[in-house]
Amino acid sequence: MKIILRSFSFAFLTFFITFNSHSQESDLGNWLIYIGSKKINSKWNLHHEVQYRNYDAISDLEQLLLRTGVGYNLSENNNNNILLGYGYILSENYVANSDDKIAVNEHRIFQQFTTKQKIGVVGLSHRYRFEQRFVERDYKMRFRYFLGLKVPFKKTEDDVSPLYLSAYNEIFLNTKSSIFDRNRLYGGLGYTFSKQLRLELGYMNQFFETSGRDQINIIAFVNF
Questions:
Q1: DSSP state at residue 40
Q2: Cα angle, residue 190 at apex, residues 188 and 194 outer, rounded to 5°
Q3: In angstroms, what CA-CA distances link 7 with 4, 14, 123, 124, 207?
Q4: CA distances in angstroms from 49 to 89, 93, 99, listed in the order given
Q5: Rounded distance between C-alpha atoms, residue 115 and residue 76, angstroms
Q6: Are 185 and 11 in contact (CB under 8 A)?
Q7: Are 66 and 52 in contact (CB under 8 A)?
Q8: Distances (CA, A) of 204 to 104, 140, 214, 224
Q9: Which of 33, 91, 118, 130 has the fewest beta carbons under 10 Å from its own?
Q10: DSSP tally for the chain: helices H, then strands E
Q11: pLDDT per position as a tens digit, 56-72
Q12: How far apart are CA 28 and CA 25, in angstroms?
């Protein structure tokens, strides 16, 4: 447990160091995220996801992401899942030194493996994702590794609070130069209303080789 708490503290410390190092180059944006999972049977599930990303609070669209996929559980406890998915991404990128935008369309196929484990009341999640990206006329491939922590506030030895802390780090690597694409570091507070619904509010820093951006994330997780 001490190791987990130290890792959690290190993640937040890294977050603040990253934020300070990029503060002069970052603008605060907002991501509204819906992540849903429909259980088909004990083995199969349907994933669906909508992300509405803005340059500012809510009015200046940066990116609209729609993602879906079919998953298969490799274990009875649903802690090991493979998934084949498709995503459509509309990006509205600013032209340098102007207020003009250009729209970029991307179609994406991806394969992923997610595994979960618990150490005491602390939940760990690892996700390995490989993407084939069709960005306008370009074809790109990318690997992503996600490590997440979920730490509930414990009320008593027999009762776990629905309020929890959440943190993750996700690194993106291209198959061609430059290899490093981006890194996302997130910390937030969540509340579990039921097995079907939980909400999170968090702060994320996304940094590239020479720049970075900060986002407020509002996330809804829905299971059917």
A1: -
A2: 160
A3: 5, 10, 13, 11, 21
A4: 12, 22, 30
A5: 13
A6: yes
A7: no
A8: 23, 25, 6, 27
A9: 118
A10: 1, 11
A11: 877 899 999 999 999 99
A12: 10
**Helix, coil or strand: residue 78:** coil
Domains of the chain, with CATH numbers? 2-223 (2.40.160)
Cα-only R_g, the chain: 18
Phi first, then psi: give them for residue 16, nearest 5 degrees: -70, -35
Q: Quick one: which of 125, 104, 103, 105 has its CA closest to 116?
A: 125
CA-wise closest residue to 166 among 135, 100, 122: 122
Tell me the pLDDT tens digit for each residue of 155-204: 666 677 899 999 999 999 999 888 999 999 999 999 999 999 999 999 99
- Three-state SS at 209: coil
**Dihedral-angle region of residue 61 (phi above 0 means left; psi in -120 to 50 means alpha; beta otherwise):** beta
- Cβ neighbours of residue 166 under 8 Å, at least 6 residues apart? 148, 149, 150, 151, 186, 187, 188, 189, 190, 200, 202
Quickly tell me which residue has 């997130």 as its tokens.
Answer: 186
